[in-house]
Amino acid sequence: MAVTIQNIDENSPAEALGLRAGDVLLSVDGEPLNDMLDYQFYTDSPHFSLVARVSGQEKTLAVAKDEYAPFGCNFATYLADKKHSCANHCMFCFIEQLPPGMRETMYFKDDDERLSFLFGNYITMTNMADHEIDRIIKMHISPMNISVHTTNPALRVRMLANRRGGETLGYLARLANAGIAVNCQLVLCRGVNDGEELRRTLSDLLALGPGIRSIAAVPSGLTRYRKGLYPLMPYDAASSAEVIDILEAYGNSQKEKTGSRIVFPSDEWYLNAGRPLPSAAFYEDYAQLENGVGMWRLFHDEFLDELARPHRVIGQKQIDLVTGTLAAPLITDMMAELHRQYPAVTPHVHPIQNDFFGGNVSVAGLVTGRDIVAQCKGKLQSGRLGIPEVMLRDEKDRFLDDMTPAEVGEALGVQVELLPCGGGEEARALLRTGLHLERRRTPRG
Ligand code: SF4
How far is the CA of 72 from the centre of ligand 1 (A)? Predict the structure, then answer.
């Protein structure tokens, strides 16, 4: 294995050595370079011996540079390697339940430890070998985000549909004992890995000690495209409440013992069960926000804190805004509070049922442009539609069904206003009427 240079930074040590685009880096101090992590780790030191194929000829180059200064090579992709794809067919896999006809990249199932470190992706470790775990430990790649789901080996094999599902659980102890911080994810499937199985999983993970930094449990998301897949039942209010009780009991006891809760239910459980969301203190440092743990508490509190700051609203503003059905009651309450404190701003909330994915999918982040158009036609009360940016894919330009916000606005005959993801930012955006800008633009007569 080796990494091929795409381009070189100007005035860098790599340029000074005469390296060029197309040259290939083979090893540093005898350690083979396979990807970006190897490159960053081994080229960090001030002196090293580099073996590279320069203009087709293998050469050994002595490198001297400032410690931690970048060596100066760039690669075609951020990993300098292909992404590792997953070798599982999890019974709850969202990608396997996607509707047909979506963008090709949506169907790619990654399971790559490098992405776990770089972007916080969760990995199952079923496609990893011992030497890759050794590398994580050697480089101290921490934290690692691991999709555990269950610590029952036979059940994990069944849930992941991968015969390595059980044996790779052993890597958890190796990582935790080596001082790698491990954040665990449990996707719970009703009647499969909840109840007694969940108690067993929590006990086993907590027994691994302080290396296990956090454990987040989320309900499986089920779309209507499950033909031929394992028959899973969605969680209802009562079964969600049972899960919360187990998770909170373990979290409370852990908090008493160690000062940290470690075990966190995701927001969806509370919203499904109709229970109030816990206070901000419950979430400690919000370690599992990416899993939807504490996201609503944070958003809600930031929104109200922003309203409590002094704002001058110039003129009147009416705005329609869309959200998923799950959080619609919360959003409706928050908008009522905004209107109470700032009567010049009148928001109208439209919960959008997710017909695109169907099933129990109800979060705002998976609402599509098509559903907004179909469900808002003829119902909007202002000429302006607020679309939360969380509904757009990572590039923030399109919904998951490829519609753009501008196309939605055109189809509905309204002006679109994108609402930023943070609660404080969203409050500020809603309080801006735009009239102060018009005033500035209007010449005084
Ligand atoms: S690990 Fe499981 S849930 Fe994740 S992409 Fe692979 S099959 Fe899907």
Answer: 35
Does the beta carbon of 86 lie inside 6 Å of ligand 1? yes
What is the Å distance from ligand 1's center to 413 Cα?
Answer: 40
- Predicted model pTM: 0.90
Please report the atom of ligand 1 found closest to the CA of residue 87.
Answer: 6
89 lines ligand 1 (CB under 6 A): yes
Ligand 1 pocket member 93 (CB < 6 A): yes
pLDDT tens-digit profile, the chain (445 residues)? 799 999 999 999 999 999 999 999 999 999 999 999 999 999 998 999 999 999 999 999 999 998 888 999 999 998 989 889 999 999 999 999 999 888 888 899 989 888 888 888 999 999 999 999 999 999 999 999 999 999 999 999 999 999 999 999 999 999 999 999 999 999 999 999 999 999 999 999 999 999 999 999 999 999 999 999 999 999 999 999 999 999 999 999 999 999 999 999 999 999 999 999 999 999 999 989 989 999 999 999 999 999 999 998 888 999 999 999 999 999 999 999 999 999 999 999 999 999 999 989 999 999 999 999 999 999 999 999 999 999 998 788 899 999 999 999 999 999 999 999 999 999 999 998 765 444 445 444 3
DSSP 108: -
